[in-house]
Amino acid sequence: MKFGRRAFLQFAAGAVGGTLLSPMPWRLADDTAIWSQNWSWRPSPERGPITTVPTVCTLCQGGCGIQARLVNGNRAIFLEGNPVHPVNAGGICPLGAAALQYLYAPYRIEQPMKQTRARGEAAGFQPISWSEALDDLVKRLARLKSEGTPGGVACITGSRWNSMDDLWARFFSAYGSPGLFKMPSHSDSLRATAKLALGKDSPLAFALENASYVLSFGAALVEGWGAPARMQAAFMRWQKNGAGKGAAKLVQVESRCSMSAAKADQWVPVVPGTEALLALGIAHVMVKENLYDADFVSRGVLGFEDWTDMQGKVRSGFKKIALSAAYAPDQVAARTGVDAAKIQGLAREFASTANAVAVWGGGQHNVPGNIYHEMSFFALNVLRGNLKSGGLVSLVPDVPFQPADDQTAASAEGGAPQVKLGSVPGTRVPLPGNGIYGFLDILTRGMIPPLEVLFVHDANPAYSLPENKIFKAALDKVGYVVSMSPYMDETAMTADLILPNHAAFEGFEDVVGLPGVPYAYYAVSRPILKPRKDTKHSGDVVLQLSKALGGNVAAALPWASYEEYLKNRVNALAASKRGAVADKKDIDLSRLQSSVSVSPNFKDGTDLWKKLTGGFCWYDVPVDVRSALDTDSGKIELAFRAIQGKGLNVEDDQVYLPHFKPLPPSGDEKEYPLLLLSYGMLSLSCENLANPPFMTKTLWDFVLKKNDLFVEVNPSTAGPLGMSEGSKAVLKTPQGEVAVRVHLSQAARPGAIYMPQGLGHTAYDEYIQGKGVNSNSVVEVQVDPITGMGTVWATRAQLRRA
Amino acid sequence: MKEEKKSASGKGVGGIFFFGGFILALIFGWIVFPNLLFSEKAQPLNFSHVAHQDSTCDQCHSFNPDGTYSGIPRLDNCVECHESPMTSEESERILVEEYIQKQQEIPWKVYAWQPDNVFFSHAPHQAKNIECTQCHRDVSKEAKLPPYSENRLTGYSKSTMKMIDCEKCHAQMGANNNCQVCHK
Amino acid sequence: MAIDLDRCTGCMACSVACQAENNVSFRADESDKLRSITWLEVYHLQNGKEYPDYQFTYLPRPCMHCDSPHHSPCTFVCPVNATTRDEVSGIVNHIYPRCIGCRYCIVACPYHARDFNWWDPKWPKSMESMLSPEVSTRMRGVVEKCTFCHHRLLKARSKAYLDGIDPNEATYVPACAEACPTKAITFGNLLDPESEVAKLSKDPRAFRILAKLNTEPKVYYLSKHQWVHKLGDNSF
Predict the structure, then answer these.
(1) Choosing among C120, C182, C200, which should be mutated to test the A contact, i.e. which has the most A CBs within 10 A?
(2) Taking the CB of residue A394, how many other CB atoms lie within 10 A of it?
(3) Which of A80, A227, A478, A787 is the Cys-Cys partner for A514 at CB 3.0 to 4.6 Å?
């Protein structure tokens, strides 16, 4: 028997038959199909029970209640609005929705780093331990203090609506340096205005939810003004009547058809920078036609009628100024580009509609404005009687932490934290506000004693400070730069030492008050996860430094940890027996009245802490402006009495009063025939947080294409320059030159160029770096001569084909 | 003649070859192949269901309030009783020393592990009074975990249910059989 | 679903929440909108007039889950039944492992609601930790689109079963509607005449995009501007 070819074939046939009768082929086919669906290189998200943890968002100042979804309690996968929270009622902004991308960002700093080569060299950063880093820093601080030059230490922080603000102030006050500076914000202006007119060092607040007519002078109301989610909720309320007929009328005065203008019931296009002139034109009509609240103004306002200054000299009042020919409708019409009849119409509508309020918002998104202009907008509210008790304009209330604070802290407070620039020689301005630009200016020119240590906390000035080269130039004069950023941002790149803070949601934080919001607000943000990197909360760093420095510094900051310090503050808050916790759904904080106090629904500090860390917020009634007034005259002051004798030309009565006085941009109009304005979008993060990839995905391809940024230009401006949609161009301002592309848009006013803020990062990763141009590198800052604050409204520019 | 003989013998012998091939293939396909296809993997430690009979099933296998099912309990459940060893068994030592003390989840091999794109909810099946044992093995008298057979090709467990089983039952019960009812 | 465009402030929270909820992948350059994967794309509409009569609005566009008889345009053309409409929930879904990547459905969809994975989705390593296990990640060569957060419906139904409620009464909200800070997006059962969304669909401001194609989209838009209604019917 030979196993020949035939036998083999027979054997094979048998084997095939047998195989077909066995499960093997079917099983193999099936399993191969399943195997083909295994894409092993594709991530397979870990499964597990999903839990929800409520907390409060601290990415911006908006104070939104949020909840995080966690898998297995240790992996955060989603952030959503907390439906019980009164500020956002379940809604969230895009930054909040994308917030976990910061927590899991690849550009997070793993541990403390020290620059071992020249400043700015990425390869020079070497990891060091926390104890090494802090020891080194303590030595420097101790030496400066013992040498009697504590002024050689300064800090730039972005914190203003949380307790880090207070902690830094205590530290600098006890250490003895005036060098605590904050990143600019529009609330600086609202604060300066309130200080001037009401004598209170708190920013103005607007009860916009209760308004039925909102006259907005360039305020980016739905694009991030104030507390963003609260504004979205207010906007929703204005729209609420249904059938497209809103409960409130929104009038937006702005040169560009921004989102707020597009959403407004009426858009009033003006020549850039003339919003205040239009406000004064409206005031003119109101005064002339007797449309103002004469009773309120005559009893409660100083400086409307003629007034007597401290030397007994009679000065003209706002009434005279407003009635002057310069603010007559036809004059204003000629300069603003708004019809005289329309101005009159606006004035009459504003004066006659119940619950009408004027709001405003700085030239560049969230930057202080010219104080004369701020006061002009404010004056409209005065004329309208909005500052009466229960009126639409009041102050952001203080959160009562004081009573139970221990003695040392109280003395630190009493020790006058003179952290304003006014105390730094050579920078005297009549009414000092945020002094960061003055500080950087002195620093660049050479400060005595020299600045040896600069902390940068919660801020990225190398990127986000308007005219950021001012910061970069000043940096050369700083001995030692300490960045506390959790991320490798532009400022961290230029640091000598990086002490990485926790990312948001990894440590205890709080929110103290909400910008532009009339009710008192306090919230604690509890961590949702353990820190993912070897980081330390900056508050803990400050406390550890204080402890190591010893003496009065340690005594002024006696807490073992930032968490304990917050608990201490919450205890104080509970001891004040004021306010209540919003622990139920549908609590409408906009209905709170200053005259009707709320009764506390918490037992003691421990109970309050428990409620706050459970994601609920504390609130209290608004401030009654009348009783809060703290001016010399006891009235609301439209005249800037305080500037007298501060070196200004006091002959001119106008100097004391709101009037139109634009700060001229530099550069020759012939060389730079156009005006550059930057704009913010809620979907493009522009401050110390780089835009997360989720949000970058939503950018239009006429804002960013590949790495090219588009500026908005009206076709009638671009046409004569030989440009069409998408043309490559060079944008030149006195500050510098950048390559851009042109987007033709009828939203743009002819003669102006509009540039988005938030692009053009040079640090971070491939998802962020090199995309577009940083608007802060081409805009120009004009320092307000009265407050010393850096304002930004427009920059002269030229656009030419590339 | 020669030819005839040859063919005759060829036929006979050929039948043997054919039959041999047939039988061998059957043996291979039915007996050898299944053993080749699956590799046996050990569980990280033994779990005796019998030893836990003082607890009810849903003390460990329970529904979460959001309607999801806990499946295999997590370490927290074990810690409730096994903070320190209760017996001197080896598996208990592993549990306490390797996992509880190190706070590490036990990497159980799940007998019914489904791919990522499958959505399965126990709640509707329980509501329709389907017994656990209709899909899972009966563990009520089980002292030792059965070996975990991993399909070498697909990487899934031998006892992972396939789509056809789901579809069949859904059809019989008149349940919705649209793709998205079970896929995510 | 009903989307009130008068309330929409173009903040993009809906689109971002959608991406986070559904494990939508992103790439370093997302400016090529033909290659970008976005389930909830937001469109920019403008009235075509000159400054200062210019106006614009944003229009968030999820999948319309077309209700046209028997088939949606996309389900009709799918050769492998990878995309089907569940006649109980009315939701059109897409099963990734079943998809063969022929992209007929992309061509068939008049709303550009579908995107194709030209590449394997890739996340920065550390961001893989924020992927949700409730939605499976896709692979190169398949189509994906908005599911009205169908996994949330499944979860809501599970909970209803557990709580002994009729699962067909289970309600849920997709991530976009939940995120919207102005509550411009209303989600509910269009077949229930008492529901908010059904009432909104009969509002005089309501319209549907490309209604003339008789695809019967289940997403209604509301706008007080007639130019928006007009654009909704001839441009996309």
Answers:
(1) C182
(2) 29
(3) A227
Q: What pLDDT score does B54 carry?
A: 87
Residue with tokens 């230009």: A713
CB contact under 8 A, C155 and B68: yes
B80 to chain C, closest Cα gap in Å: 26
Residue appearing with tokens 């990415």:
A59
Domain ranges of chain A: 5-36, 113-187+399-620, 199-397+634-656, 674-801
- Looking at chain B, which residue has its C-alpha nearest residue A38? B154
Mean pLDDT in runs of 10 for chain A (802 residues)? 83 92 92 88 91 95 95 95 94 96 96 95 95 96 94 94 95 94 93 93 94 95 92 90 71 96 96 96 97 94 90 90 95 96 97 95 75 96 94 95 50 36 53 90 88 96 95 94 97 97 96 96 96 97 96 95 96 94 91 91 96 96 92 91 68 89 93 95 90 96 96 96 96 96 97 96 94 95 91 94 90
> Contact A481/A494 with Cβ under 8 angstroms?
yes
For residue C87, the tally of other CB atoms under 10 A from its CB is: 10
Q: Report yes or no on B6 lying in a domain.
A: yes
Q: Domains in chain C, start-ordered, CATH in brackets?
A: 2-234 (3.30.70.20)
- Best of C5, C21, C25, C31 to disrupt the A interface (most A CBs within 10 Å) is C31
Q: What's the DSSP call for residue A775?
A: G
**pLDDT of the residue at A427:** 54
Among B27, B106, B116, B161, the strongest candidate for a mutation testing the A interface, having the largest count of A CBs within 10 A, is B116
pLDDT score of A39:
85
Chain C residues in contact with A33 (beta carbon < 8 A): none
- β partners of residue B34: none
Domain hosting residue B33, numbered range: 1-41
Q: What DSSP character marks residue B33?
A: H
Smallest CA–CA separation between A796 and chain C, in Å?
21
CATH class of A113-187+399-620: alpha beta
Beta carbons of B123 and C158 less than 8 Å apart: yes
Angle at A146 between CA A143 and CA A149, to 5 degrees: 85
Q: Does C139 touch chain B (CB under 8 A)?
A: no
Q: What's at A29, amino acid-wise?
A: A
When mean pLDDT is compared across A363-377, C6-20, C55-69, C206-220, the lowest value belongs to A363-377
Whether pLDDT at C119 is above 70: yes
Are residues A91 and C181, on separate chains, in Cβ contact within 8 Å?
yes
Give contacts of A 736-775 with C, CB under 8 A. Answer: 746-750, 765-767
Does the domain at A674-801 match CATH 3.40.30.10? Answer given as no
Is B172 part of a structural domain of the chain? no
Chains contacting chain C through 3 or more C-beta pairs under 8 A = A, B
Distance CA C39, CA A321 (A): 56
Locate A546 and state its tokens: 């204080």
CATH of A199-397+634-656, one of 2.40.30.10, 3.40.50.10470, 1.10.3720.10, 3.40.228.10: 3.40.228.10
- The strand pair at A314-315 and A153-157 is best described as unpaired
Is B66 touching A (CB cutoff 8 A)?
yes
Query: DSSP character for A124?
Result: G
Coil vs helix vs strand at A598: coil
- The answer to the question of residue B164 being in a domain is no
Strands C185-186 and A153-157: unpaired
Q: Is B24 on the interface with A (CB under 8 A)?
A: yes
Q: Is residue B138 part of a domain?
A: no
Give the one of C135, C150, C155 whose C-beta lies nearest to B67's C-beta. C155
Residues of A in Cβ contact (< 8 Å) with B10: 6-7
What is this structure's pTM? 0.93
Q: How many domains does chain B have?
A: 1
Residue among C80, C109, C107 at smallest CA distance from C95: C80
Contact C38 A714 (CB under 8 A): no
